[in-house]
Structures are given as structure tokens and as C-alpha cells.
Specification:
Chains A, B, C, D: This is Four-helix bundle copper-binding protein. Chains A, B, C, D: InterPro entries: Csp_YhjQ, YHJQ-like. Chains A, B, C, D: It comes from Paenibacillus terreus. 4 copies of one chain form a homotetramer. Chain A has helices at about 5-30, 35-55, 65-80, 85-105. The longest helix of chain A is centred in the first third of the chain and has 26 residues, at about 5-30. Chain A has a single domain, classed as Substrate Binding Domain Of Dnak, Chain:A, Domain 2. Chain A contains 4 helices and no strands. The interface between A and B is medium-sized, with 18 and 18 residues.
């Protein structure tokens, strides 16, 4: 497996974990109303990252298209989570940005 | 949920099932060598169909992009399975074509 | 594929859909605070149902154990959703109960 | 998130990757006939590991049952892959064993 693919799988799995941590923590927050979109996009992003990591791991020939989609969803999640000051939101936004970058490299490969 | 989305979820789940049935049956066939690509694409297609059905079910705003990707993978699986005369391959190819059509409608919606 | 497996796959996919519909609708409800557990279990249940449907579809030899787990999660989701009067919660609870029944049959098979 | 859960997520994701690598490589091997069960169990194991990693990541209360199931499937995959001398099979068997151990700890926690 080449280095870009390995880095991308790793970034996807870290992003998936950060999204799931943020999802659970957001569902417990006092100001739940403000976090509706955050919760929704955390799941959205965790699911595509999980799918992408597995697809890359099994050597899919659709890597470019899959990674372009994954990057787009990661960017949307980063934008939403980035609005909130909770540490889990900020960490999630950061993981989403790193994953989007790794996916953009794969998308044009 | 609107009618096109419901039809597309249904087509994805039927395609997922047909791909999984074809996958298991192919792995048991005597002429295994000829079915390498069929087995590989059956899994590839089952996974994207499963992902797409769930994403549509939770009202994703990325439906057009997800369905475009799903259609592309379904078409690749239909092309491969369509080459083989096993009944499970022919039925899978048919389900893939129907799913690709339903996804193409969503992709331009 | 035998009849019990087919019925169980169908029940899992209907439950997955009902959970995803309830999940999205719950995230938009005015009384969000009361639905934290409902939202969380909707996702939990949708994920295990999706996994179980695919595993059964590919003829897993672990069907009994997988279905026992799926039944348990469906029952937990039915119990939570059953507490709420929203139509999506009631419909979800009903789908979860049907899926749990179908899974219990597989679990002792 | 406590240390055992983190270790278990990590072991699941490493096992998922090893299973997917072994799956792809096995599908390309000359002696395909002998690898039917290996290919089948690689997918089976990758799917449960992926599911388990996400479930643990979102703090599921069903961790003990999920990890018991995951351990059982990892052990079956380790037993099968361990029979074959291909490096990808041996590495996969090793990852499966480590994951089974991490899951057994969670299963009795």
C-alpha cells in the first residue's frame, strides 16, 4: 500500500474517532439546542470516514471519487464544529480539516 | 420522505442483498478463478449501497454526490457480473442496473 | 436463503429505516432535551440493524450470536422510543419490536 | 474515554486494516481455491471490527456483548488465516489474535 493511501486511512480513522467522541459529548451538553447540526454532521462525517477507510484498505479503484466525497463532508463538519467553543468540537474540527486535506490529495491522485 | 428517496433506498437495499448473495455463491463456485473481479466488486457494491441507503435514510444533504458515486460503482459491478452466466451473477447485474438508475435520478435532483 | 433469514433481513432493514427517520425527526424536535437517549439509541439501533442485515445476507456462520445482540439493542431502542408520543418514535418502537422478534427466532435457531 | 476502550478501538482498526489487506491480496493469489474461507472470514472480521470500533467510539452501553462477538469472529479468522503461509495471512492472523485479546478484556469488564 502506498504512503498517501496509508496516511489517508489513518486520517479517516482519527477523524471518525474524533467525530464519535464529539457526537457523544454533544448529546450530553447543557446547550443541546445549539448543537443539533453539530450532532448530525458528526454522525454524517464518522460514517463516510469509516466507509472511506475500509474502501481504501481494500484497494478500491474508486478511491479518487470516494475521497472527494469524504473531503466535502469533512469540510462541512469542520465548518460546523469550528463554530462551537467546546473542546470536543474544536478537536473534531481539527481532525476533520486534517482528514479533508489527506482526502483532497487522494482525490486528485 | 419523498418518493424518489424512498425508491432509491429500496433499490440500494435490494442491490446490497443481491450483491451479498452473489458474493457468497461466487466464493463457492467451481470456476473460482474467473470470478475474482466479480467477488471483489460484489463487496465493493454491497458496501456503497449499504452506506447510501443509510445516508439517504437520515436525510443527508450530500445525497446527489453520494448517489452519483453509488451509481458509478453499481454500473461497474453490473458490467462485471453481467459477463457471467451464473444465475446469481445475472440477478445481481440486474439489481445493480436498477439501483444505478434510481441513483442517477437522485444524482441530478 | 431460508425463509427465517429473509424475514430477519427484511425486519432489520425496516428497523434501520425507522430508526434513521426517527433520528432525523428527533434532532429537529422542539423538546430536544427529552430526546437525547432516543437520538442516541436510534443511531445505535440503525447501526446494528445495518450490520446484521449485511452479515445475514452474506451467510455468516455467526448468525445466532449476531441476532441475539441485535435483538437486545432493538429492545433497548423500543423501550426508549416507546416512552415518547411523537409518531416517529411510536413507529420506530414498533419496527424495533418486530425486528427484535425476528432476531430472537434466529438467535435460537 | 478510558484506556481499555482506547486500546480496543485501536486493536479493532488495526485488525480491520490487516483483514482488508489480506482479503485483497488473497483474491489475487495463484492458489485461490485454498483461500475461499480466508477471503470470506477476512471480510467477516473486517466488518465486525469496523462496527465494534465505531460502537466503542460512541460510548455504547453494549460494549461487553459487542466485544464478545468481535472476539469470537477474530478468533475464527485468526484460526483460518493462521493455516496459510502467505505473509499477509500470517500478519492478519496476528492482528486478529491481538484484537481478540483486547476484546476479551472489554467483554468481561
Amino acid at each position: 500500500m502506498n504512503h498517501s493511501i496509508e496516511k489517508c486511512i489513518e486520517a479517516c480513522l482519527e477523524c471518525m474517532n474524533a467525530c464519535n467522541v464529539c457526537y457523544v459529548a454533544s448529546l450530553k451538553e447543557y446547550e443541546l439546542e445549539m448543537l443539533r447540526e453539530c450532532i448530525r454532521l458528526d454522525r454524517e462525517c464518522a460514517e463516510i470516514c469509516s466507509y472511506t477507510a475500509q474502501a481504501l484498505g481494500r484497494g478500491t479503484e474508486f478511491a479518487a471519487d470516494i475521497c472527494a466525497l469524504c473531503a466535502r463532508i469533512c469540510e462541512a463538519c469542520a465548518a460546523e464544529c469550528g463554530k462551537h467553543q467546546h473542546e470536543h468540537c474544536q478537536q473534531c474540527a481539527e481532525a476533520c480539516r486534517r482528514c479533508a486535506e489527506a482526502c483532497r490529495i487522494m482525490a486528485v491522485a
